[in-house]
Amino acid sequence: MVKKLLFVFILLISCINAHAQFEEGKWYLNTSLTGLDLSHSKYEGTNFGFQVGSGAFVVDNLMVLVNFKGEYVEHGMDETSVGAGARYYLSNCGLYGGLGLAYKHLSNSVNRKDLVCLTPELGYAFFLNGTITVEPAVYYDLSFSNCSEYSKLGFKIGFGFYF
User: Fold this and answer.
1) pLDDT at 135
2) For the chain, which residues make up each domain, given as ranges?
3) Which of the residues 38, 136, 143, 153 has the least number of beta carbons within 10 Å of its own beta carbon?
4) What gap in Å lies between CA 92 and CA 107, rounded to an integer?
5) Euclidean distance between CA atoms 16 and 45, whole angstroms
6) Which residue positions does the secretion signal occupy (predicted)?
7) Residue 37 near residue 72 (C-beta atoms within 8 A)
8) Residue 110 burial (C-beta neighbours within 10 Å; 0-12, 13-18, 19+)
9) Domain 2-162 sits in CATH 3.20.20.370
10) pTM as predicted
11) What is the pLDDT of residues 74-89, one digit of tens each?
12) Quick one: 113 exposed, middle or buried, by C-beta within 10 A (0-12, 13-18, 19+)?
């Protein structure tokens, strides 16, 4: 019982601290490691990626952001992508949902493919202090062309910096 009360207390404190960071005019920078993807293609092997994003809160709780991603895929096609989207923080305590579009360039030694994807995500910003967060998220890259082969469900974890 004491552990449950302590957990609720910590969650409430993080909500109070998080509210000040999601205000209009705040800037955001994020670096994430990706690569725990669950691909619809059974031919891909190990993959490892890095993503960098930046944005600004245009109104309270709503951020507009841009990002760049690079990913190495063993036995598959390496990915480079540029995207833009929006993220909305729910209940001022760090839980967020995002939606965006990304232009992807996939390539290996034999093939090249350019795609446009819808990129929804769901995550949580866990504040380490007033400006730094650890941000785990689940995302889905929904390809507009050949959906069953190029869409991906994945997990990423990163650090966010709120200024």
Assistant:
1) 94
2) 2-162
3) 38
4) 40
5) 42
6) 1-20
7) no
8) exposed
9) no
10) 0.79
11) 777 888 999 999 999 9
12) middle
